[in-house]
Amino acid sequence: MNDMLLPYDHPTTVVIVDDNDWFLHTLDLRMPADMSYLSFHDARAALKHVNTRSPLPPISERCFSSNGSASAWKDPMIQLDLTLIEQEIKNPERFMRTSIVVVDYAMPEMNGLEFCREVTDRSIKRVLLTGVADEKLAVQAFNDGIIDRFLPKNEDGALDLVVKFTRDLQRRYFLEQQKALEDSLRADPPQFLSDAAIVRHFAALQRKIEFVEHYLVGDPPGFIFVTASGLLYRLVVLSDRDVEAQVEFAKNAGAPRSILDSLSTRDKVGFFFDDPQGAGEEGLCWSDYLHDATPVVGRERWLTALVRDPPIDVDYTRERASFQSHLDRVDALREHLRKQSTAVRPEATPGFGPSALQG
pLDDT tens digits, residue range 111-169? Predict the structure, then answer.
């Protein structure tokens, strides 16, 4: 799937485990503001948190359906229902999924390798922080598949490498989570997913509107983009055949000649989210369903349109389900539990920061 856009992507949570309050405080100052993370001083509390499975399984375990759908790509044995993918945007718990643990080797309750062995979800990526004397053990653990990376803790730039490793491993986490989707999509894939021109257009839009999550959708094909503050965009991606189908749809639904001309000349593309049969005697205001077309030429010529605040058939609210609202809740929780932790452990370093989360 490395040559394809991911069918979906959203922020997840990094769990950091270290009994050294000074290190947690220093790392807390270095962590990016847009990264969801929890820091634990207590390894047992951290392990309990990591091994507590979310009540809602990952998308890759929920997006297959036995019922037919107009927005499904199929193979003979299994059906991928895209309507189940876009439903994820209403689930605030999606950001709390642990994708990576960063754990110190030398801890009193259990060492970092013991911690990594006891993580029950093997899809979670594991980074071990080591001292000089621990490096041989770390190399062996890496070779044995117990950890995914190791990092000398006292090395110059170690904190920056922690951030880099988490970014890299979150990408790997999503690639591996979506293996079942890859197998299904390869049976009859939407071709734009692997077209280099669309990949470049996707990246340019990400820089422009700064969306932090995306979800593959159908009818019409494309993506839902969601910014950190919860703004929604719909990227429509149509092949020439898709456009011809839209022209035929509009013609059969009684669209005026001006609408048919806009579609036929490829000046506009349609996002027909209402059924013309239910529009009543006055009919549809067809111009509301047309958007300026941006051509993207790759293996074939695509027509794209970016629609802000699109209608969606999902019970979604920004206040409850945006990434920023999640970060605000996590920040408040870290501060609350830091105070609890300091009260329980009066020997803790004063002012070691809000990131030492006692689970």
Answer: 999 999 999 999 999 999 998 778 889 999 999 999 999 999 888 888 899 999 999 99
Cα(126)–Cα(38) distance, rounded to whole angstroms?
15
Same domain, 117 and 26: yes
Report the predicted TM-score, pTM, of the whole model to 2 decimal places.
0.85
Question: Where residue 133 sits, what CATH number does that domain have?
Answer: 3.40.50.2300
Q: Angle formed by the axes of helices 240-252 and 257-264, to 10°?
A: 170
Mark out the alpha helices in 240-322 (DSSP H runs). 240-252, 257-264, 318-321
* 5 is a domain residue: no
Say if residue 194 is in the same domain as residue 259. yes
b/e sequence 111-147, b meaning 16+ C-beta within 10 Å: bbbebbeebeeeebbbbbbbeeebeebbeebeeeebb
Residues 38 and 103 both lie in one domain: yes
